[in-house]
Amino acid sequence: MLASLCIAAGVLVGASPAHAAPSDLCAEVGYNAGFRGDSLVTAVAVALAESSCNPSASNTYNNTPPSTDRGLWQINDHWHSEVSDSCAYDAQCNANEAFRISSGGTDWQPWSTYNQGLHHRHLDEARAAVERLGHPGPGPAPLTYPAESGRVVSARSADGRLEVFAAGSDGIHHAWQTSANGAWSEWESLGGPADAQLAIGPNADGRLELFALNGNTFQHRYQLQPSGGWSTWENFGGGGHDIAAGTNADGRLEVFASGPAGVFHKYQTTANGTWSDWEPTGGGPADSRIEMEKSPDGRLEVFALNGNTFQHQYQTTTNGTWSAWEDFGGGGHDLTLDHNQDGRLEVFASGPAGVFHKYQTNPTSWSAWEPTGGPADSQLTSERSPDGRVEVFAINGSVAQHIWQTGVNAPYGQWTEFGTGGTEITATTNADGRIEVFGTSHTGVHHKWQTGFSSWSEWGWLNSTSGPAVD
Fold this sequence. Notes:
- This protein is of the alpha+beta class.
- Helix content is about 15%, strand content about 35%.
- The strands form eight sheets. Strands 20, 21, 22, 23 and 24 form a five-stranded antiparallel sheet that branches.
- It is globular.
């Protein structure tokens, strides 16, 4: 009798070898959907964090607005109503949609477990599942897109909490969410350069690094551990006009700064490591506004604009050297960059006639400049809604307005009112994917956040204090 039980057990064990563990199912359907290499490991880890790789899993707890997360990758029926229940609860169809929503495994911002770092605890199990699948080959690591730079900047710590920094006449001020998607701390004063331009980016180990530049001083400070306390200010170079920071595909931070002699850059020689000396970039517009984005293959692209000239340059290979500066249009006031759900870059620039945009028609070619309307000589920022649509926000001394894509990868609607005037604006995303916008004026720093796809809170202080005046 014991022998027959052992034989039966052997038959049962061998009946479904591909799914010996729930993670094997996620690895199989994830691979079939198109995930490869590190992005497949990340996909499996996210699914384990979201659903324990249970294709029937559902969740309604704490969802705002009331909605249901469904299936392996917990695709939400409000933010992704285009995904039917029959698809969401089908393992392969859910994986196919996760591949689409994540832009082929390059953008995991829509998943709160990824934003909060909860997938990290599942990475070993995910790697083991991918290895059991049979080493399916190399693929892209998830891309970390640069944050907007300016007088106010915001980024998420490794635990999903937003941190925001604003530059006033008395230095830099700092506030943070006390929990992911939650309430805000009071403002604290950090000192540092007065009336600075700011940029922020994540190190490979998850520690945020902040850069602050004015006409005479360039300093930086960084988290001592992911989501932890911060270092004191350290020297980072001489003064300049504007800065932008981004993360290479291999995890090394790269910083660009403009000044009267053009644009220079400085980069980490190893991930989380020491920095190179400042190097010229071969020109670039003098005293320009700078922003940075990332192509779908991980190459950084830099765009620089002053009153007369608009130019850009790009890495010729991932993590590699840079092209010469190329003409990108006439001069203007400010710019913002973002990427479509399919990875194509979008560039917006403001000037005396309003806001214009230009977009990639394929990885190597661009549209002509197209008018959008919008506020004249405005400060610009942009971010992506949870469903992947780009939203653009503009503010000048009289008015704030915003515009958004009418569908994923689609044209834009009309500008609508977003508030009264101010001096600077930046947008970021909460851990749950909702956009949060920070606007500055001589009275301090306000914020406004999505309560749904097309609904917003009112403007208000972050807590009970106003933060610094930003003139």
